[in-house]
Every structure is written in C-alpha cells, then in structure tokens.
Design a protein that fits this description.
The protein is of the alpha/beta class. 20% of the residues lie in helices and 25% in strands. It is globular. Strands 6-5-4-7-8-11-10 form a seven-stranded mixed sheet, with helices on both faces. Strands 1-2-3-9 form a four-stranded antiparallel sheet, with no helix packed on it. It contains six helices and eleven strands. It has one domain: 3-Layer(aba) Sandwich (Rossmann fold), CATH 3.40.50.
C-alpha cells in the first residue's frame, strides 16, 4: 500500500481562528506550521522560487515574480504563448475537450458555458459549435479580446453558467480562498466547474517542474483542494486527462449531489478524461477501452 504524505495525518485538526488572518498562516487551512525556503529546479539552479509550505494540508505558496504576465494586458499579442494545449481557430484544444466532457456529463439538450481564464485560447468558438452548447462566453482578469461576450473575473458575476472550464488557471491564484469564490460565483447550483492543473506529488519540490513555471503561485495537494470543497459546499472529484503528465488532474467541482452522481456515472463508462491528446491515434479513450473488453 502506498504511504500517504505526512502532512495528511494532521488534516482534521481545526485551524486556530487567529491563523486565518492573511499573512499569518496557510492560505488554505490557516495553520501556522509553515516552512519557508528557497527551492531551485533540479535541472536549472537559476529557476528558483521562494516558497511557503504548509505542513498541515500540504499547500505550497510561491512568491510572485516581479513581472505579471497577464494582468493589465489589453491585446492577445501581449499575452504569453501557451503551446499546443490552447485551441486555435483551426484546431480545438484542451478547454474544448474539458467543456465537451462537462456537457456530456450534464447530458442536457443545451447548457451554457463560460471559459474562465481564456487567455489566448480560441476554444470558445469550437465549444459554441457543439450541438448541446447554449450560450458561450469568456472570462478573465484582463480584457484582451472582443470575439465573444466577456466577463470580468475581478467583478461580481453578471450571470451564472451551467459549465465553467478553467484550464491552467488555479495555479495562478494569489489568494486561493478569495479567488475560488470569485470563480465559483459564475456556476449555478446544478452546474459543474472543471479546472485543469498539476497537483503536488510525493517527490521533493525541486523535482516538480510545475512549481517553476512563470507566474505559478499555488501548488495544491489533494488535501488542500478537499478543504476548499468542504468549506465552500462543493463536491470534489479528481480525474486524470488522457496523455498528460502523471500529476495532471481535472479538478471537478459541483454543489449538486445529482450532478456529482452524473460525474460518477460518466466515469463509470469512460475510463479516462479527454484532453487535446484524445484522438491523436484515431480513437478516443472510451473506444480504446471498449476494444480492450
């Protein structure tokens, strides 16, 4: 049996009220049992981050870099490139697959979709073309495009959606408790939120490259995500997307027990979540599993 991380053993301890003050305790659980250190990526000593590690829930907070790569930008050209995961006008990417999965889970004739933290991705156009997609919009902390209805993630939600997808977004959260609440206000009570991120593994932090990407300020353990779910009234599910790294997960949230049951049913038939890698060999993960049977 695999040994659980040591920090998980103390998860159930109540956080002292005084520790909830920003800057005095863990940004997730509030405990003050923190380790502060500078960690360098094992392949490049120049890529070092100042981090605060919670010994209770395992959350790792990384200090912000001096140059914010997103906030304040006003055009797509100013935003950093994100590689093949982001959809283009010619080819759908990861957010399309996340939204398609969520729509299939809900199994409705029509469901509204928000692409949260859309950045450069053009997947909103591919999502709009899905037969069961209703109203589709994009949201972000900066308004750098005008190709679809835009929602400012810094402001209170003007409307709610059945599906919210956020690919490679939550690791940029500076104040996770507040930032998750900002995102959750966009989903309705029977809806679903699907986030994509890499979780903290058991290896030393210097071996976990995800921590050293520019502008990544949050590295979550499964325990820390469960605490957020419990405290916000959400059910939590973690699924591995096809063809991606071993620590990559879709973090699936819903307030609804019925929707939670739909997630369970979906993955009872589909063994692995779809990603931009799905279909590269001419078959989906589901069809491959069917052939194996």
């Amino acid at each position: 049996m695999a040994r659980r991380p040591r920090f998980a053993r103390r998860q159930a301890e109540p956080a002292p009220e005084s520790a909830a003050t920003p800057g005095t305790g863990c940004l997730i659980c509030g405990h003050r049992k923190l380790a502060k250190r500078t960690v360098a990526w094992r392949k490049n000593d120049d890529r070092a981050r100042d981090v605060t590690i919670c010994k209770t829930c395992g959350f790792v907070a990384a200090a912000e870099l001096s140059n914010d790569r997103y906030r304040g930008k006003t055009s797509l050209e100013e935003l950093p490139s994100v590689g093949v995961r982001a959809g283009t006008m010619e080819k759908p990417g990861r957010e399309f697959q996340m939204a398609r999965m969520a729509l299939d889970i809900l199994d409705r004739d029509s469901a509204d979709v928000l692409v949260y933290g859309a950045g450069r991705s053009m997947d909103n156009h591919h999502i709009k073309a899905l037969p069961n997609a209703g109203h589709v919009a994009i949201g972000d902390i900066m308004n750098a495009r005008d190709d679809m209805e835009f929602h400012d993630a810094n402001e209170p939600a003007r409307r709610q959606f059945d599906v919210v997808v956020a690919s490679e977004v939550i690791e940029h959260f500076r104040n996770p408790r507040e930032n998750f609440q900002q995102m959750f206000q966009f989903v309705n009570d029977e809806g679903i939120v699907v986030c994509g991120t890499s979780l903290r593994g058991r290896r030393p932090l210097r071996d976990q490259r995800y921590l050293f990407y520019p502008d990544h300020t949050a590295l979550y353990s499964p325990e820390s995500l469960q605490l957020i779910a419990d405290d916000t009234g959400f059910h939590l599910d973690l699924r591995h997307p096809e063809g991606l790294g071993p620590r990559k997960r879709y973090v699936i949230w819903t307030r609804s027990r019925r929707t939670r049951d739909l997630v369970t049913r979906y993955f009872g038939y589909t063994p692995i979540a779809p990603s931009e890698k799905t279909g590269e060999t001419g078959e989906t993960a589901e069809s491959a599993a069917t052939q194996a049977e």
